[in-house]
Write a structure and sequence with these properties.
Layout (H helix, E strand, L loop, with lengths): L1 E10 L3 H4 L2 H15 L8 E4 L6 E7 L2 E8 L4 E8 L8 H9 L3 E10 L8
Antiparallel strand pairs: 1-5, 1-6, 2-3, 3-4, 4-5
Helix pairs in contact: 2-3
Length: 120
């Protein structure tokens, strides 16, 4: 059995959008829906004071979705993990749509739960 993790970095984002909790809530809802994931309880958010960013955590029945925004750098870092394989959503389009991201980097990591026979 193999799960999948996406490590996502987006740059050139709107600093105002990166500070706007309603924008990030809508982004999370879209990503969770696009990936066919399911939340467990309420999504947790922490908004840093003044012009600081926002940290978010969605606990999912499949694992988690997290973000941390850096308005001062126009960037967001996302991490999504699913314990079951599934097709990747279009992170690039979603981040462009909600945050105006000019460049998005997505790394796909396969997470294998079964030890290789004869290996350590």
């Amino acid at each position: 059995m193999v799960g999948v993790e996406w490590i996502v970095e987006a740059h050139g984002c709107s600093p105002d959008g990166l500070r706007d909790l309603s924008v990030l809530r809508t982004l999370f809802a879209a990503l969770i829906d696009d990936l066919g994931l399911h939340t467990v309880g309420e999504i947790l958010w922490h908004q840093f004071p003044d012009a600081g960013g926002i940290t978010g955590l969605a606990l999912l029945s499949e694992s988690h979705l997290t973000c941390h925004t850096f308005p001062e750098h126009g960037s967001i870092c996302l991490n999504a993990f699913s314990c079951r394989p599934r097709p990747r959503c279009d992170f690039e389009s979603r981040l462009r749509e909600y945050l105006g991201a000019q460049r998005t980097i997505v790394r796909d990591v396969a997470r294998d739960y079964i030890a290789v026979r004869g290996g350590a």
